[in-house]
Amino acid sequence: MNRIYLAIDLKTFYASVECVERGLDPFNTNLVVADPSRGNGAICLAVSPAMKMLGIKNRCRIYEIPKDIKYIVAIPRMKKYIDYSANIYEIYLKYIAKEDIHIYSIDEAFLDVTRYLKLYKMKSVELAKLIMKDIYDTYGLTATCGIGTNLFLAKVALDILSKHAITNIGWLNEEKFKKELWHHKPLTDFWQIGKGIERRLNKKRIFDMYDIANANPAILFKEFGINAQFLIDHANGIEPCTIADIKAYKPKTNSISNSQILFTDYTYEKAELIVKEMVELLSQQLIEKNLETDTIKLYIGYSKDYIKHTGGSKKLSYFTNTYTKLVYEFKKLYEKTTNRNIPIRRIGVSFERLQKYENEQINLFESIENNKKERRLEKSIIEIKSKLGKNAIMKGMNLEEGATTIIRNKLIGGHNGY
Question: What is the CATH number of the domain that holds 231?
Fold first, then answer.
């Protein structure tokens, strides 16, 4: 049985929400979602459709907007956008069961409508229009939709075709994909092909999907390894993965991570404080989830015009979830890999190879009782924060100049949480 998928996207989601909240039409209102307190270099998370029609691109910086264009600046409100997204999900549930819905991002979702078309006695386009109308009538948000015989084709129909359709709906099957998009450029318009992959393909004299489909597979596998199969399948409009497969997937290994872009350049010494804060927050997550790790990873990105980044990973000789041990290991990794003379702007830390915490590993050079005491203390801190808020209790380092934990605890996704 051929499957039919809808890929639904909420058009310029953040900007549209801000317009709707102000009683304004996104298609007639110049509005950008950005935090001007971060300076003219602040990234616009979204621009209204009216701004796009003026040639302003999403993810531009404030200083890139022409001075003669007047517009409203809306400070990001991530909690508001999450609430809207949750409400849109409730609309999907009116028509489709949750097992047939895959939320791809805050403003995008895949729906397997195969078995619902007969139930509702509708064609896929009719069902798409019904859901899109419900979203608009209920929340004033315009949606676009891609319809495809697999997830890849639905996403490509959404990304490439729907934006040029009067109905905001595009559809593809394998035959139509080859006929209309085999020679489409640039390759980066296609799902999961970034600029890096495009450059590597161009070096092989491969410039469109037709070239990939007709290239020597050996060349692609030599360049991309097993990932070449995804390129070959997609170039032929093939995608065997289903929503059921996605929901059944269980990763072999788990990890947790945290990263941030600093508001200003940090010295080597000041940046070490941020690393400590981030390790603290992640170690509390491990304890809260009853997990432990034996592999740590550090990323240090430097200010522009300098080297790109340094860092690395380290496999420990033991599993742990206590802050004292983890911050000690990160300190050594930081000292070993970080350039002391270049200003730092980005930091990322992660714990990998997670496993369930069960028993304390015995070490002759440390006190098991002290480890248990530290873990009990951290659990108490976690309990207080869960009841009274993330900033209800802080360590001394969180109050030092340049510390960011208190500020970041008020954010969602790195932006204002209100």
Answer: 1.10.150.20
User: What is residue 410's DSSP assignment?
Assistant: T
Residues 144, 169 contacting (CB under 8 angstroms): yes
Overall number of domains in the chain: 4
> Residue 416, SS3?
strand
* pLDDT computed for residue 304 by the predictor: 77
CA angle, corner 33, sides to 14 and 409, nearest 5? 85
90-131 residue pLDDT tens: 999 999 999 999 999 999 999 999 999 999 999 999 999 999
- What was the pLDDT predicted at 395? 77
Q: Contact 103/89 with Cβ under 8 angstroms?
A: yes
pLDDT digits (tens, 9 = 90+) for 220-237: 999 999 999 999 999 999
Tell me: the pLDDT tens digits for 366-402?
667 777 788 788 888 888 877 877 777 877 788 778 7
Residues 42 and 135 in one domain: no
> Which long-range contacts link 327-336 to residues 24+ away (Cβ below 8 Å)?
327/276, 327/279, 327/280, 327/283, 329/296, 330/275, 330/276, 330/279, 330/296, 330/298, 331/272, 331/275, 331/276, 333/296, 333/298, 334/272, 334/275, 334/298, 334/300, 336/312
> How far does Cα 101 stand from its chain's mean position?
18
Which of 197, 219, 246 is at the close of a domain?
246
DSSP readout, 23-89? Answer: T--TTT--EEE--GGG-TT-B-SEE-HHHHTTTPPTT-BGGGS-TT---EEE---HHHHHHHHHHHH
Position 365 confidence tier, pLDDT thresholds 50, 70, 90: low
Sign for the CA dihedral angle at 155, 161, 162, 163 comes to positive
Q: Which residues of 1-30 are buried (b: 16+ CB within 10 A; e: fewer)?
A: eebbbbbbbbbbbbbbbbbeeeebebeebb
Cα–Cα distance for residue pair 287/43, rounded to 1 Å: 35
Note whether 47 and 386 are within 8 A (CB). no
Q: Which domain holds residue 64?
A: 14-76
236-274 residue pLDDT tens: 999 999 999 999 988 777 899 999 988 889 999 999 999
